[in-house]
């Protein structure tokens, strides 16, 4: 496999799918991973029709044996985009369901650990780049988000620690921390399918970020010269000054 190859987790929708489109347009062979085969297949067909090379691999990043088996199918990895994750619920710490916290931790933290460990040898060989999609929730806390905040703090620490541990190795570790991004599923999942509550997150916000905005940011960081490492890039819409200060019109 002589073509530059990018592996994207959580590629079936949102930021993952947008990143796949961006990196494919930049000339990468993209390997699309997620749990929903139908969506991955549709995206791969779209990219193939546009003249790009896309491979599909159904994968649950929390299943370490499956991740290891997936890694053995790849001869080359230049970019790993650890995007799989998400938030569940808005309960306080006093009332939260530990099962929700466990799911968020396993996906956002252990999923990133699993794929990074499994693909690291290929990334070293290719002098590649590891992208960790964290969140501004990994940098500052807010009420009603304890489980997600804790998980994204974990993802942030993975990126920070890995960069220290790989110092001297030909691998970049880049963390992208998005703020308010409006996608089809993130808020809907967080509010357990309540469409009205999900939509209310963005009420009055003229221009929240889009998945394409984050994909564009990822594409830019990856395209820097090999000696340039963008350690941490926080991306918010202009209307958002912090996790809890957002300008809303009307």
TrEMBL record:
SUPFAM superfamilies found in the cross-reference section: NAD(P)-binding Rossmann-fold domains
Keywords, comma-separated and alphabetical: Oxidoreductase
Which InterPro entries does the entry link to? Answer: KR_dom (IPR057326), NAD(P)-bd_dom_sf (IPR036291), Sc_DH/Rdtase_CS (IPR020904), SDR_fam (IPR002347)
Please give the Gene3D superfamilies that the UniProt record associates with this protein.
NAD(P)-binding Rossmann-like Domain
Concerning Pfam families, the annotation shows: adh_short (PF00106)
Acetylation recorded as keyword: no
All copies of the Ketoreductase domain together span 4-184
Q: Which PANTHER family match?
A: ALCOHOL DEHYDROGENASE
The entry's protein name is SDR family NAD(P)-dependent oxidoreductase
* Organism per entry: Streptomyces ehimensis
